[in-house]
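Reviewers asked in the last cycle whether our approach scales beyond single polypeptides. To address this, we selected a multi-component target totalling 431 residues and predicted its structure end to end. The input consisted of the following lines:
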Amino acid sequence: MNKVIILLTLAICAAIIFFVPPIKGLGDLAKIIFFHVPTAWVSVVAFFTSAFFAAKFLREQNYSFDKLSARAARLGFVFVLLSTVSGAIFSKLTWGAYWNWDPRQTTIFVLILIYGAYLTLRAAVSDEKIRAKVSAVYSLLSVLTVPFLVFVLPRMYFSLHPSPVLNTSGRVEMDSIVLIVLTAAVVDATLIFIQLMKRDLSYNRKEPT
Amino acid sequence: MTKLFACRCEQIAAIVRKDFIVGLRRKASFAAMMMFALTAVASLSLSTGGAPIDPKILAAILWVVIFFAASAGISSTFDDEAQAGTLPTLKLYADAQAILFGKMFGVFASLTALTIFIVPIFLVLFDVAVEGGLLLSTTILLGVIGLSAAGTLTAALTTSATVKGGLFPILLFPVTLPIFLPAIKLTEFAFTGAASDSSLLVVMILFDAILVTATSILYDYL
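The resulting structure, written as structure tokens, was:
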């Protein structure tokens, strides 16, 4: 599996450098979008993965679910930081400012805060059993903000952020080569996430939490 | 069923009464919350020196002060029991939901007292003319309900933490954001008298309900 991911990643990098046409008026740096979209996707996936394992832990009291939940959150934290930085660079190129609290930027920032708060809470509680319970409860509590961020916030503030590829009008407003490479990059990032989630389990080593 | 419910009401009332009496004996955390709010408002008003401030920013300042003062005051909601190790004993006498709602009512009462104390001072010091008094009171009430629900559960989460400094507001902020942002908007409308957006009130009511329900469900697992 590792080899497949490495090959796919290399192929995508090559495609981005050689095949994707430069974006009009933005130059080569705008190709950071191929990094931004997949990392943003994974940071959201990791958030729900963490909450899913938290719920599973609370139901079954199996501590390996707690470890998975924590690992998803740790990975998600890394991905959300990468996504935010790459998004800010792209925002500077297209909107002229690194940060302007666009609803999407607010959403990703809240995600950073939630991940940060979750990991801080884990670090602050020393008793393993209490830590597992407390962090699972917090993980589920923080999921409650999702409907607000998705449905309410975009209505409260005007957004400049382009719609996702699968937008409501059902149209794909992209070159086919761009779309293919972007989809491949999203799949690749998801595979990397899954592989990282699995890795520590198969080695079954004792990890610091 | 009604008997069970009535019995729970009694338990809730007993918890509130107990916390009130213990609180009277040790007024420190309540006084700290009030003084924190007063200091924050005074320092902001003093440092801006009477310069005209946009209603939007005034509304934001008011809620930031309420949020952090509330954090300072309610983070220790479960600490008395945790330090004395009496929470398991309390759970023998009353059921978990009664403890939760008892604590929540206590938090709600102290946050209501906080806003009754700080909002008039804020309005006077910043010389704000309130156009929609009813809207302002409703917004604050809804905001306080949400803060008490999320705050009580967060306080239960942080009691067992070894590092406490600053942890409570870090955890509380993302969770209360869905009531925090509409509250700021509505407060701005109340200050300017602009036609208010009733859908924002609906959002706040909805999230208050969600937070109270979720807190009640999740507390059982702690």
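Residues 2-219 of chain B form one domain. We regard this as preliminary and will revisit it once experimental data from Aim 1 are available.
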